[in-house]
Amino acid sequence: MEVKASQPGISFLIDHDIEGYAKLLWNTFVSDGWMELCIIEMLMFIDVGLAINSTDRKVWRFAQDHRLILLTANRNMEGKDS
Predict the structure, then answer these.
(1) Strands 69-71 and 39-44
(2) Of 14, 20, 51, 69, whose CB is crowded by the most CB atoms within 10 A?
(3) Sheet containing 69-71: which strands, arranged edge to edge?
(4) In a domain, 2, yes or no
(5) Residue 71 three-state SS
(6) What is the span of the domain harbouring residue 30?
(7) Could you give the CA distance from residue 1 to residue 43 in angstroms, rounded to a whole number?
(8) Domain presence at residue 31
(9) In the beta sheet, which residues pair with residue 43?
(10) What is the tens place of the pLDDT at every residue in 5-43?
C-alpha cells in the first residue's frame, strides 16, 4: 500500500496499543491550534494494512519506508525481529 501525506506536514503511525492515547493527543493538537500551523496526520495500523501482530522489524521498516513517525508503547528489544 502506498502511503503519502497529501501535503507537507507530520505523519504519525500509531501502534495499535496506544490508539486511545493517540486520540487524546489529536484532541490536544486541535484544541491548541496546531492544525492551523501544519498538516498533522495520524494513521492507524488498519489504515495502512498492517496486522496488529506485525513484528517490530516490519512495523519499524514500514514507518521508515513511508517517512512516518512511529508512536508506540509496547515494542521491545527482544528477539531477532526487534
Answers:
(1) unpaired
(2) 14
(3) 39-44, 9-14, 69-71
(4) no
(5) strand
(6) 9-39+47-71
(7) 13
(8) yes
(9) 13
(10) 455 688 999 998 898 899 998 898 888 888 888 888 999
Contact 41, 30 (CB under 8 A): no
For the chain, the residue count is 82
Q: How many domains does the chain have?
A: 1
Query: Which residues lie below 8 Å from residue 5, measured CB to CB, with a gap of 6+?
Result: 11, 39, 41, 67
Q: What is d(CA 65, CA 71) in angstroms, rounded to the nearest whole number?
A: 15
Residue 32 lies in a domain: yes
When computed from its CA atoms, the radius of gyration of the chain, rounded to whole angstroms, is 13
C-alpha cell of residue 25: 493527543
Is residue 34 in some structural domain?
A: yes
Q: What is the DSSP string of 4-58?
A: --SSSEEEEEEPGGGHHHHHHHHHHHHHTTHHHHSEEEEEEHHHHT--TT--HHH
10, three cell numbers? 507530520
* pTM, to two decimals: 0.77
